[in-house]
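My main concern about presentation is that the manuscript never shows what a single data entry looks like. In essence, backbone conformation is discretised, so a fold becomes a row of integers matching the chain in length. An entry of this sort, consisting of the sequence and the corresponding backbone structure tokens, reads as follows:
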Amino acid sequence: MAALTRRRILECAVAIADRDGLDAVTLRRIAGELGVHVTSLYNHVETRDAITDGIVELLLDQAHLPVTPVDWEEWVRTFFAAMSALAIQHPGAFAALSRRPVQGARAAASFEIAMAAFARAGLSAGEAYSAVKAAVFPALVVGAERSMSARGELPETVMEDLPPESFPQFHALEDYDPTLAWAFSLETLVAGLRAQISDRASTAR
């Protein structure tokens, strides 16, 4: 049997989440899948939150986010693309990213790069952090929709319940492609951040 390591435990947790959903991930379930007693896990992960933090760390490792200086727009676009890819690759485990904040140097490294990029663009430390959060929120929502789509669970409005004469705009959306909304969200975010940065640059002059 392979040695029990933190990474092996976390990879098992990701596999369970992708197969059965994040709520199915428990220390007892992981122990059962690995064929060990649950107390054997405690030297590596002590709590359910530690498991979730580890899943976040593992996913961000797989995302290959920038860890060397880039400009803010490149970081935002890269982050969006990375979250979309993770959502498709790990449709169950992806939910961990919205359950817990990043913990530890490895998970936080790219967000430090992002804040530095916004700082170079002229934002204060608080504004740079806010800009990163502004990028993270919609990326996670888009990712959540992509993960539901990957599982075949993307909900849709039941058009039959809406009379066409009262809801012509909804009925005009027949065969709507959800990727259009995801792309529109990214471009709207980038345009908004660019306007905010430009406004602050003008005020500073």
Remarks:
- The two ends are 65 Å apart (CA to CA).
- The helical segments are 6-20, 27-34, 48-63, 72-89, 105-120, 125-150, 168-171, 178-204.
- Residues 178-204 form the longest helix (27 residues).
- The domain at 6-204 is CATH 1.10.357.10 (Tetracycline Repressor; domain 2).
